[in-house]
């Protein structure tokens, strides 16, 4: 009888789990022969997961933070795949994107309402007032998919005017997790490096304030969004040791979040910065500082 009961429970669990579709094939041109290509790792244990196992783990979290490299098409293809597969596991509550600002939200809402009614705009790029610095060629398919869904597509960033105000007059940041000396020193080092060491040192406190206020806004938007919620943002923003998760902790929501970083093969991602990493093909290396130094 006990064996029969265990068998029945196993069958019930299998029936409740939806099998996932194969992930998309690599698009980026480099790293195709790397031994880590396509590997998904649970960082706390070092265990390699199947796509099915990853989706099942993420589906159990009320808030999923997905970090990307903005110019890697594989990351956007995997995000679209992940949204579809999560929705097959349980109803999706909301999708938030770093690439959308609050001053676009009314347009996003209007386009989503029209799209759901069967009257999508002929040119969603224009209808959304999409920002040119986010390549529509890699974001378009994902955004178009999200506009058709029953859950809201939400902005997670700051408006440019808000950023300029923070730059001019730095607001106080409250909370213990996000304000430690180590966190802020690491962020300052990254800001220096990402700006090729060319920023005057006197600008650094303002740049740090902008970075952290953007992370705080993403955390606040996540907390206000219908759950289960997914946030898509740059990998640095979602890091557990530096970004949005620290602000969630400061806002009293440090538990129940899951962080997945999509990383090009050869990159290092640790258990301190994420719960899971998925290694993808890589884009060609670019010297982003060459033009600035000329």
Q: Give the distance, in angstroms, between the N- and C-terminal Cα atoms.
A: 78 Å
Give a short account of the largest sheet. 8 strands, mixed
Which CATH C-level class is it? Alpha Beta
Provide the structure class: alpha/beta
Average pLDDT value? 93
Q: Tally the helices: what do you get?
A: 12
Rg estimate, integer Å: 20 Å
Strand order of the largest sheet: 2-1-8-7-3-6-4-5
Overall 3D geometry?
A: globular
Order of helices and strands: HEEHEHEHHHEHHHEHHEEH
CATH hierarchy: architecture: 3-Layer(aba) Sandwich
Domains (count): 1
Question: Would you identify the regions where 5 or more consecutive residues have pLDDT less than 50?
Answer: 5-15
Helices and strands in order, then pairings?
Blueprint (H helix, E strand, L loop, with lengths): L1 H15 L23 E3 L4 E3 L1 H9 L3 E6 L4 H17 L4 E4 L7 H12 L7 H4 L8 H12 L5 E3 L4 H9 L12 H14 L9 H21 L4 E6 H4 L5 H7 L6 E8 L11 E5 L9 H4 L1
Parallel strand pairs: 3-6, 3-7, 4-5, 4-6, 7-8
Antiparallel strand pairs: 1-2, 1-8
Helix pairs in contact: 2-3, 3-6, 7-9, 8-9, 9-11
Describe the structure.
The protein has 294 residues and is of the alpha/beta class. The protein has a single domain, classed as Rossmann fold. Helix content is 44%, strand content 13%. The protein is built from 12 helices and 8 strands. An 8-stranded mixed beta sheet has the order 2-1-8-7-3-6-4-5, with helices on both faces. The longest helix is centred in the C-terminal third of the chain and has 21 residues. The relative contact order is 0.20. About 4% of the residues have low confidence.
């Amino acid at each position: 009888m006990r064996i029969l009961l265990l068998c029945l429970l196993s069958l019930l669990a299998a029936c409740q789990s939806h099998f996932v579709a194969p992930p998309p094939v690599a698009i980026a041109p480099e790293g195709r022969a790397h031994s880590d290509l396509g590997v998904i790792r649970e960082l706390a244990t070092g265990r390699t997961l199947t796509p099915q196992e990853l989706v099942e783990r993420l589906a159990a979290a009320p808030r999923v933070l997905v970090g990307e490299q903005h110019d890697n098409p594989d990351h956007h293809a995997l995000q679209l795949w992940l949204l579809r597969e999560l929705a097959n596991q349980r109803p999706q509550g909301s999708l938030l994107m770093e690439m959308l600002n609050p001053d676009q939200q009314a347009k996003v809402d209007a386009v989503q309402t029209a799209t759901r009614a069967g009257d999508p705009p002929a040119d969603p790029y224009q209808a959304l007032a999409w920002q040119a610095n986010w390549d529509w060629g890699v974001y378009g398919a994902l955004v178009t998919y999200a506009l058709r869904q029953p859950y809201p597509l939400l902005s997670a960033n700051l408006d440019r005017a808000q950023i300029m105000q923070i730059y001019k007059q730095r607001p106080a940041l409250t909370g213990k997790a996000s304000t430690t000396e180590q966190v802020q020193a690491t962020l300052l080092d990254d800001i220096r490096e990402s700006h090729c060491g060319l920023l005057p040192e006197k600008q650094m406190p303002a740049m740090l304030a902008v970075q952290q206020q953007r992370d705080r806004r993403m955390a606040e938007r996540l907390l206000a969004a219908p759950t289960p919620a997914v946030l898509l943002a740059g990998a640095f923003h979602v890091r557990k040791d530096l970004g949005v998760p620290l602000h969630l902790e400061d806002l009293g929501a440090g538990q129940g979040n899951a962080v997945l970083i999509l990383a090009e093969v050869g990159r290092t991602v640790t258990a301190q910065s994420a719960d899971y990493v998925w290694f993808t093909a890589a884009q060609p290396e670019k010297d982003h500082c060459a033009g600035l130094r000329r």
